[in-house]
Every structure is written in C-alpha cells, then in structure tokens.
Prior knowledge:
2 copies of one chain form a homodimer.
Chain A: H1 9-20, E1 25-26, H2 28-37, H3 44-57, E2 60-63, E3 72-75, E4 88-92, E5 98-101, H4 104-116, E6 120-121, E7 127-131, H5 133-138
Chain A binds a DNA duplex (25 and 25 nucleotides) through helix 1 and helix 3.
Amino acid sequence: MRTGIYKTRHRDDLMEYFETTGSDHFTVSDVCEYFRQKNEPIGTATVYRQLEKMVTEGILNKYIIDANSPACFQYIGSHEHCHEDVCYHCKCEKCGKLIHLHCEEIMSFAKHLETEHSFILDPRRTVFYGICAECAGKQ
Amino acid sequence: MRTGIYKTRHRDDLMEYFETTGSDHFTVSDVCEYFRQKNEPIGTATVYRQLEKMVTEGILNKYIIDANSPACFQYIGSHEHCHEDVCYHCKCEKCGKLIHLHCEEIMSFAKHLETEHSFILDPRRTVFYGICAECAGKQ
DNA sequence: TTGCGTGCAAAGGTTTTGCATGGCA
DNA sequence: TGCCATGCAAAACCTTTGCACGCAA
Lengths: 139, 139
C-alpha cells in the first residue's frame, strides 16, 4: 500500500495522546512537554511535521489564534460526526483567554451568512475577539 | 490637548499612504518598501508601532491571515458606513476579498454573546473568514 | 520641560529546513 | 531496497523591546 504515510512509533504515540488527554486544544509545545515528562521525548520538528500532516489528512484542526502565539490544534477524532460538531472560539483581548464556543446561535448565524450572504464561514480560522466577563468586570 | 498621540511627520505620511494607495490590504513590509522607494524610509519598528496604535484607534483593521505570513492591515477610516454604525467584515480565504457586513443577525448574535456568554464582541478585530460566493462556485 | 515618537540593533518566539541517520514496507 | 520518519541544530521569519536621541505640545 502506498499511502505515503508510515505507521511509526511516534505517530501511534501522538494518536494515543489525542485520545487519552481530555484537553481539547493543544499546541506543539504542549505535546512536546507531555512526552518529555513521560521520558519519551519527541523532537519538535517531528511534532510539527506530524501535526501538519494530520491536518492535511483531516485528523486535526489547526487554529491560528494570534500572530505571536503558537498555533492551536484540535483533535477531530475518528468519529465522523465531527463536521457537524464544529466549534468556534472567542479570544479575550485583555487576558488572552480562549473560550470554546458551540451554541445554536453561532450555527444559525453561520447558516444565515450562507443563505443570505453566500458566504461559507470557516470555523477553523474565524476567531471572535472581544472582552471576557472577568476582564470586563475589572474595568 | 492630551490625546497621548502626537501628530508627527511619519503619522501624516502613513495616513496619506492609506488614502492614496488604492490597495485594500497591506503589510508592514509593503509600507516600508513604499517609503523606501520614495527615499523617505521609515523604520520597521516605527511602522509596527504606528499601525498597532491605529488599530487601537479604530483607523485600521488587522487581519491574521496565517501563522507564518505577515499581518495584513486595512484602512477603514474613509469607509463612511463604518462610522455610522458598527461594522463587521467577512474575508474570503481564496481571493482575499473583503465583504462589509451590516445585518440584524450579526447584531443579535453579538447581543447573544454578551448576555449568554458574557463576552463583548469587538468589531474592529473580529473578522469572519470563509469562502465567498464566487470562489465557492469555481470549485 | 515633559512625554511621546523614532531608529537601530538585539532579542523573542514560532515554525521551517538541511542533512545524516534510522525505521517502515 | 526505496522511501519516509526522525533528531538536531541552524535558519528563516515576523514581531517586540531596550535604549539613546529627536521632536511635538
């Protein structure tokens, strides 16, 4: 079989990481740190290359939150319901906190954009910027 | 007057650049290159600082296109419809076209975010990424 | 005079790449 | 055996920062 992708030790480790860790979002350094603490370190370049490959395969989503912060990856999973279970993100401009969003309203708004404005929203890249509750309270 | 912002030569030059160049989008290096060719070079750090300031003031929009490509700025000062009311933007990931959005749905969605999620949406920084009608048709 | 603006170089951080080595099929 | 994966370090890249000096108010 010529998939162009080999089943290696690291690849298995990464898949296991995605499924065992509850964390929805993770960065390259998160992954590296995890395996370093397990005394099974993986080179940074390898993680970048594998994760990028998996994004292409559709196993992971990649989010660009900000120019100067690391890219955020999300495991979509083996289940195929993933495409309906899209998630959007709110980012606080003050504290930088990332809020996971998936509610009816954003879905219906996305549908509105599509039907009325002929614009197909991309959850992977769209980030809602604003001020979170805590930071708003401090002001 | 204590605005905290001084009216300098470079600031005027930049404003003129925004209004004379028809280009909707530009990067920091675009700006630097432009003034270098005019034999009136501006330091890179200065451009970064001024542009960032103008984003805060609401004169410019800043788009993060990709993690490894430079930030993209857009002059919105002269768009009158942005002054009369809040304005959101859709950006096509394929052709780069920018669509100005002005509808009830986004306003009510913003209100929903605020009441239900305690998140105050910032129109200046929030950009909806996706695929526009024309590019969707081509596929 | 005070405080912001500027320029340069250096630093900071993320991501990519070159190259030799090792592993999968 | 051929091709892909890996690791390390270096490079590339965008962006920010420190500091001394210049300029606006």
